[in-house]
Each structure stands twice: as C-alpha cells, then as structure tokens.
C-alpha cells in the first residue's frame, strides 16, 4: 500500500472552518427530510446552464464535493447502502444480479424484478437484507417513511421492502399494482390520475413523481422521511447517450421539477422543518464498443458456462461493464484458472477475489459477503470523450444497451463520483465540504438529526462537518491509499481508496494499461 497524502478541509464563502458537534441548545421542531435522488447524475454535468435550480440549491446550501458510491456502482446495490448505511459486505445486496440458492433456486436473482424480490425475501424468511433498514429504524421510534420511485420495479421495493409489515407508503410508477398500502395508492391515483406511458427520456414520469410528492405525499402523509427517486438522467444516459439532446432535455426537466419543489418549500412557513438532501447513486460511462461476449469467450477457452454453476457447469456470468462470475463449488483451482485467463484478455480491468490470490481482494472494496461472486470483474474503461464531449467510456458485455449509450457498475472514478448537496436549518449554508463522504453516510446523518441512535453495525459516519450550528473539534486525517495486485504476466491492478479514520471511500480502480 502507498500513502499518497492526507488532508481534511471544509470551505465556506466566509472562512475556513472544521465543525463537528451539533449544538444541543439549537433544538426546535423535529426536522423532516426529503431525500431526492437524481439517478446516475454525474456531478460534472450539473451547471448553471444544465440544471440552474440544483446548481443554486448547492451554492446556497452545503455540497459534498468528494461524495462516492459503493461497488458495484449499480443502482440496487447503492439503494441498499442508502437505507442501511452499510457496504455490500454487510447488507448482502452484492449486485443488480447475483446468486442466492435460497432466494432464487437454479438461476440468477434479478433485484430489478419486483416479483423476484418479493418471492426471494419470502424464501429468505424476511432476510433479503442482512441488517435493519431505514423504515425499521424509524418505526422503532414512531417515525414514518414514504418512498416513491420512477426507477425499476425492484428498485422501488429495495428502498422500502418492509413497507407491507410496517404499514408505510411505497409507490412504484412501473408497478402501481405492487404499491402499498392499497387504499392510499388508490386515493393518490384518484387525485393524480393514472401513471403516464413510459418513454425515454422519461419527462412525464418526472412530472408525475413531483405531482405525487407535492399533491399527496406532503399534504396527506407528511412523512418524517420521504425518499423520492427520479429515474432521470439514468434512463436517457443508458439509451440516448451522455450529453445527447434527449439527455440534456431530461436534465432540464428533472431540474424544473426540482424547482417546483423548491418553490413549494419557499411558499411554506420560513420555520418549516423540512430538510432537503439531493444525491445520485452513481455516475455513468459511454458504451464504446459492441459486447465482448464474455460467455462465448469463456466457452472458447474451454470453460463451460450456464446457470447455476455446478455439475457440468464451470461458471455462471453476471457481468455488464462489471459484475461477477460464480464458479462451480467455489473451487479455488478453477477460480485461479479463470482469473489467469481473464487477466490475459485485452478487455480485462480490475479482478477481485475472496482470497486475493493474484488479484485484489473483495474486502478492499467492501464486497466480501457470502453472496459475493467468486470473481468480481470490471471491464476496462477510459477517459476519452464521446461524440457530445462527455468524458469516460467502457467496454461492455451486454447487448441491452446501445453503443454510444451509457453504462455503470465498475470502478472508474466517473462511476464512483456522485452528487450530494443539502439545504435546510440543519445544514451549513454557502459551504463546500472537501472531506470524503459516501452514500453510506446519509442514513447515519439523518438518524443523528432525528435523535435516533445510530446502530453500531452501521459503517457510514455522521457528516458532522455539514451540520449547522456546530462547535469546533478535530476531524480524523484523510489519506489516500492504493492497493495493488500483480497477476498473470504483466497484469497489474490498482484500487485507490480514501481513508478517514475508520471509514473508507472508493476512489477508482484500474489496470496499468488503459483501454485502447
């Protein structure tokens, strides 16, 4: 490991300051929270021109400039980290697709599928997620959660998968029929009308989501915490390309709808306890070539591929631009053979395994869970510009996303860098925090501000440095550390993380020779 530097700083327009402990004399009405996700929003695509409302919101409030996703940088993985405050090594959602023989016998478990998630959780005896989720933690203190998502059906459930047992509100634009409670869903749809037809860019879905929040969730439910999930810019990134006219249109509409929320908040009592946190769950890269057909390549190399691994099947593959390979009986010899073969391929990026034999270790990325793949694989990426001048590209193993479209899941810095800004009486104003932070920190910060004890298992930290009316104290040193692994031939992989006391944040992973 190589230590490169150490620093910790919070920048204010007025002066430099380090803050930490919330002043106990500042107690007012209990705060309420709107947590608004712009799915996949890259921070470098937020400007006064593209998203003026969000840009102004960040300028007037506090922005976390070094905010990071977890790996894999996929949506349901990061949603689980949002509602648990943990890395996948603790919450167990190790990919958008993964193997769990109990949850999904004989095939990959697709967390994007509402039905599979519901049935999988039933099969697992309610242990889809290994640690308590936000809804449960709030309910223990008589606090309420409401969630609304225009993302995937499974993603909507992941944000609030205990809604049925807790009696909380969960609405999925993709699956109104799977939304609960049924009487509240019917009441809301009677007020708003049916969900519009889904299109890309998903402009009308952004408007419907905002209408639902402003016209039903706030006035009727008034939850202590609401998670509102915008499906853009993720949809237009994926299928129209980063920076494309359709994508810019989606960014503009998402910003307009956010502006409606800000206008509504401004019309309320100035002492309103509502706090708004905006964030994204990951970034995206441009798909820069046709599928590599990993399954076919493995078969040509003499390995048998199928689902599930076992008997006559050497490996099962769940990889787009990144993902996992599950190996028959987790055989260490077979794992070693596949790793060695992968590292000789021109498209192979970082490889991670449980024992770190000639590879990076899963635990270095917070992915060492029993459900984790035997081999985590990231395909090579680059920092080249696409046709619209947006940096970052990747190879891919999926025919679902078009060349020139967008993809995510890996360890490129542009996938891990994510947006976060907050505004409200609980937060600093006109500030930029350059301390590292991540999606795992949102839950403990909210719990802290609600006077709910943060459970010991939570891996994220309370972001004391962005909280208002604080007194000064020391902040742990922040240092950059690089993990290295030497593999077959001249293969060398590196994983860069930032350590802040006992916490860590992923910066980027790469192999020494970039994508040509």
Provide structural commentary.
The chain is α/β, with parallel strands linked by helices and 516 residues long. It has 15 helices and 26 strands. The strands form 6 sheets. Strands 2-22-5-21-11-4-10-8-9 form a 9-stranded mixed sheet. It has a 5-stranded mixed sheet with strand order 13-14-17-15-16, with helices on one face. Strands 1-24-25-26 form a 4-stranded antiparallel sheet. Strand 24 (478-486) and strand 25 form a beta hairpin. Helix 10 runs antiparallel to helix 11 (245-267).
Number of helices: 15
Mean pLDDT across every amino acid position: 93
Most strands sheet: 9 strands, mixed
User: What gap, in angstroms, lies between the N and C termini?
Assistant: 27 Å
**DSSP helix fraction:** 25-40%
Strand order within the widest beta sheet: 2-22-5-21-11-4-10-8-9
Backbone shape: globular
From the structure provided, what is the oligomeric state, counting identical versus distinct chains? single chain
Low-pLDDT ranges: 1-27
Gyration radius (Cα, Å) is 22 Å
The secondary-structure class comes to alpha/beta
